[in-house]
Specification:
Blueprint lengths: L2 H17 L39 H24 L4 H47 L1 H11 L10 H13 L1 H13 L9 H20 L1 H4 L3 H27 L3 H31 L1
Amino acid sequence: MSSEQVDIEAQERVDSSERSPSATEDTGNEYTTPIQIPGRRDNTLRPTLEHLGRSRQYWRDIILGVNDGLVSTFLLVAGVAGGGLSSKDILLTGIAGALAGAVSMAAGEYVATKSQNEVMHGEISLEQQHVRYRQEDEIGELGGLLDLIGIPEEQSALRKDLLDYYRNHPEALLKIMIALEFGVLENEQRSPIMAALASGVLFVLGAMPSVLPFIFSDSPTVGLIIAAVITTVALLVVGAVKTWATRGRLMVSAIENLTIAGCGGALAYGVGVLFDHILHS
């Protein structure tokens, strides 16, 4: 039986199951009745989840920016609070740190992303030359890469058809070599400006929980406690958002974020107290 016939029969079973009142289990429509499809290990049809789409390549900048703003700014205010500064001094220090951190993050991401794009453009230009002047070498290299996409040597007829196709279509050969050799697709390229804006703006937002309490409190201790509470909640929220994006485990991600910030905050405060003791003893 051909794979096309198998898929047609499977679709007919899906259609008939959707018309049946008892086809869907009473679990909030998360799963449908298992349908056996020959040649597939997982025979349970599951709902289709949407991918993150074009924002996928910027999640690194999003999480890095807001997380760095939360953690580094809290460590900064905890350190200077432990050093005995007043609320006004802590506020000015926090604002300066937030602005400096945001500019540094944005500039760093812009330069790093642009440099990476330029490196990849250089590699792609070289690959274009290889496809043009050394096509058979590229075809041989492609044959070695087919195993990576699940086409083993046992599928000799299929491999031959694919290699013949790419041999006769140089533009398609270039695209698949870029995808397999470099792991790059045209629509996945990161914009340096978008990367810079995402990391810089979110750094400032992440810094706010550690800065704002010192506007309303004259007591450094009270301000630091409020900052710690708000930062803790914000870190848990960031962990939850990251879990939604990665489909990971909520508690693991949230506790990981919280542990890193908590240990760092305690260390920074302790260092501040130590230096205050040394300078005033």
